[in-house]
């Protein structure tokens, strides 16, 4: 079954945050949260679907029955679900009196905030591991309290002087809590099921290590002992992005960091990132960031 290709609708984050049945609070682009999700009867979730966001759900009360990659999970109080974007999902049933804590975050949102640590923190979202964890009372209370803190920080995201930083810190706290708990609760699925995903994680890890010196898909494919075509197709299937887009993503993230956080000149940054000249770097950066490096630096320094 794992090797059989599944077709499913893509449920997009923009649709999710506009759905009044779900009532997720979204004041942060690419992110939404609610600590009191109740009965939902949403046709889009009753059929198999994929999404452009990851989801984390904690059952507080009642029972939620959900299918992940065609495997049914009965979730009772203290059950935690980690649902990846590419996973095939379906809500089978939900008690009328059920209460959930839930949040959603797009892949772009995750990458912008936690690029350096993303692979380590997101390891337990891999289909290598069972997405359903049954927490003990203490750990469930910790996750519920962290959800509440995140919700509070989203409410102050645009009003508190350091609202953005406090929100990022609260969300990072949740991921670190999950990273620690994963060693206790995560169970490994059948190894063959995540072969493609393991390739993508290995590719992304290589890109993180070498994007300053190497931006050629073929070179990465050779290191992974696969063809460039297979690598590109697999990365696209798992992440929704091409291999080249993954490489560009890390380059732009690092360029933005250096423009924001270092005194290096634009020429020096271009050289650090192994561009042939400042002009080429400027055109490359503007194509993805929408601003020239100079404009981007000026915008960041206003805040």
Structure report:
- Residues 201-299 form the HTH araC/xylS-type domain.
- This is AraC-type DNA-binding protein.
- With 303 residues, the protein is of the alpha+beta class.
- The protein has two domains: 9-189, Sandwich (Jelly Rolls), CATH 2.60.120; 196-300, Orthogonal Bundle (Arc Repressor Mutant, subunit A).
- Helices cover 48% and strands 19% of the residues.
- It has 13 helices and eleven strands.
- The protein has helices at 13-18, 43-46, 107-114, 118-121, 137-155, 163-185, 195-210, 217-223, 228-239, 243-261, 266-272, 278-289, 293-300; strands spanning 9-11, 25-28, 31-37, 49-51, 53-61, 64-68, 71-75, 79-83, 89-94, 99-106, 132-134.
- The strands form three sheets. A six-stranded antiparallel β-sheet has the order 2-3-10-5-8-11. A three-stranded antiparallel β-sheet has the order 7-6-9, with no helix packed on it. Strands 1-4 form a two-stranded parallel sheet.
- A hairpin with a 2-residue loop joins strand 6 and strand 7.
- Helix 5 packs antiparallel against helix 6, helix 7 packs across helix 9 (228-239) and helix 10 (243-261) crosses helix 13.
- The chain starts with 8 loop residues before the first strand and ends with a helix.
- Residues 1-7 have low confidence and may be disordered.
Biggest pleated sheet: 6 strands, antiparallel
Q: Please give the alpha-carbon distance between the first and last residues.
A: 51 Å
Structural class: alpha+beta
What is the highest CATH level, the class of the largest domain?
A: Mainly Beta
Q: Which architecture name of the largest domain does CATH use?
A: Sandwich
Number of helices: 13
Order of helices and strands: EHEEHEEEEEEEHHEHHHHHHHHH
- The overall number of domains is 2
Q: What is the CATH homologous superfamily assignment of the largest domain?
A: Jelly Rolls
Spatial shape: globular
How many β strands by DSSP? 11
- Rg value: 20 Å
Helix % is 40-55%
**Strand arrangement in the largest pleated sheet:** 2-3-10-5-8-11
């Amino acid at each position: 079954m794992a090797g059989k290709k599944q077709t499913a609708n893509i449920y997009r984050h923009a649709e999710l945050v506009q759905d009044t049945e779900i009532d997720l609070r979204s004041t942060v682009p690419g992110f939404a949260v609610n600590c009191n999700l109740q009965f939902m009867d949403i046709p889009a979730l009753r059929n198999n679907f994929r999404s452009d966001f990851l989801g984390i759900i904690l059952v507080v009360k009642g029972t939620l029955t959900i299918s992940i990659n065609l495997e049914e999970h009965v979730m009772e109080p203290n059950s935690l679900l980690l649902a990846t974007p590419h996973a095939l999902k379906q809500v089978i049933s939900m008690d009328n009196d059920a209460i959930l804590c839930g949040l959603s975050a797009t892949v772009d949102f995750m990458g912008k905030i936690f690029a350096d640590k993303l692979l380590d923190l997101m390891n337990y979202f891999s289909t290598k591991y069972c997405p359903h964890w049954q927490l003990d009372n203490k750990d469930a209370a910790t996750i519920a309290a962290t959800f509440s803190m995140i919700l509070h920080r989203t409410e102050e995201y645009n009003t508190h002087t350091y609202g953005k930083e406090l929100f990022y810190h609260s969300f990072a706290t949740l991921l670190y809590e999950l990273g620690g708990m994963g060693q206790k609760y995560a169970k490994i699925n059948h190894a063959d099921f995540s072969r493609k995903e393991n390739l993508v994680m290995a590719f992304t890890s290589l890109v993180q290590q070498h994007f300053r010196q190497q931006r050629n898909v073929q070179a990465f494919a050779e290191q992974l002992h696969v063809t460039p075509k297979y690598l590109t197709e697999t990365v696209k299937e798992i992440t929704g992005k091409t291999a080249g887009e993954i490489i560009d993503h890390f380059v732009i993230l690092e360029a933005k960091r250096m423009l924001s956080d270092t005194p290096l000149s634009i020429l020096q940054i271009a050289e650090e990132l192994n561009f042939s000249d400042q002009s080429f770097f400027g055109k490359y950066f503007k194509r993805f960031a929408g601003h020239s490096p100079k404009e981007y630096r000026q915008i960041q320094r206003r805040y």
